[in-house]
Amino acid sequence: MLDPLAAVTDAFTSFLFGKVETTRLPVRTSTGQAQAVYLPTAAPGLGDSGVIIGREVYSGKGYIYDPFQLYGQQLPAPHWLVLGESGNGKSALEKTYVLRQLRFRDRQVVVLDAQGEDGVGEWNLIAQQLGITPIRLDPMTAREGGIRLNPLDPAITTTGQLALLRTIIEVAMGRGLDERSGFALKVAHAYVNETILDRQPVLTDIVEQLRHPEPESAESMNVDIDDVRAWGLDVALVLDRLVDGDLRGMFDGPTTAGIDLDAPLIVFDLSHIDRNSIAMPILMAIVGVWLEHTWIRPDRKKRIFLVEEAWHIINSPFVAQLFQRLLKFGRRLGLSFVAVVHHLSDVVDGAAAKEAAAILKMASTRTIYAQKADEARATGRVLGLPRWAVEIIPTLTPGIAVWDVNGNVQVVKHLITEAERPLVYTDRAMTEDGGGLGREATAPLGGAEASSAESTVA
């Protein structure tokens, strides 16, 4: 029989707090079934295939990303844009991402290393650890046995050579070639390729032919030889800079023998080039086209082309057009292009706004580190980020970024292993990128090579 005092107590409690829940016996079940009783706290992840980036901040889940695994299912394009001010972890993310990708046998990476200290690029330490010698482009040493890349290398098609020559000239002049100058360049290039058969043609041959065109070049168009010479004069003066000016030695000879294009990591060290000079976009154009014709091959390898200071590419209409073609072509052959820039305004407000928009559209993955509030709002408008993501970008701490993978937006903390830490944190990185980054992530470097991109976080 119910105790009268207990009945009064239950009635009073029900009056104050509502109906009292009955005590239920515990239920034994699996975590897969039990997850249904919890309210959702974060967006679904990207799957469990790929390389580990870190942890999703709100749920604590491991965050795994791989453009080659996601392409065709969750990603329409494998290209990736990384944004953020210095000191927030872009450099650490790039380096650990590459190191983790290289654990798989079917991966190959090219890095355009535009930053450095102590006379070497910041990727030098990683290259040394992997037994790789960076390809250091330096006009001071090019004449004394340094590295040379020949824009007229026979490995590049004649069409590619002519397109590259036009881009070099247009970047240097800051405007497009007119029809007459373009004609003078075309006939000079054709004559050099037809007559020089015992060696690699070089830029000096083009300059010489522009200065002294053959009579048949004029006759074919029924114009005077002096007119052809005048049309090609400006072109010759621009190319002369690569032959006898401040960029001499790097491009005015046969391509240096022994460059290993089969190495898992290829680093082009551009740290000796003034980043604010016209030389940088010219260099990137030459390297990009040279790689397109000599490196990207239908051999089923998955390739990553990482470009630091990528605004040099995207902000030049002529260089951007070349790389836009490279991205479209490379996507069919397994190429993921990674562009690293500080501010989106560096590219969308520049002279190549149209070309920049096209390249940004092909970047289905966007990673945004901390930015000032005004910049974050502008970035959000251009990239179509949700409002909540735009609002938290200025509050992000180093190592934490907003990831937008084709509309799947999450906040991710990048984590680094102890094995990676000495390679990622050079002295320069400690002053700019070293604050507040986590210490846990994927397994240490080394060990057996993996044949597939399968990694799972518990």
From TrEMBL:
Residues 435-458 are annotated as: Disordered. Coiled coil: none annotated. This is ATP/GTP-binding protein.
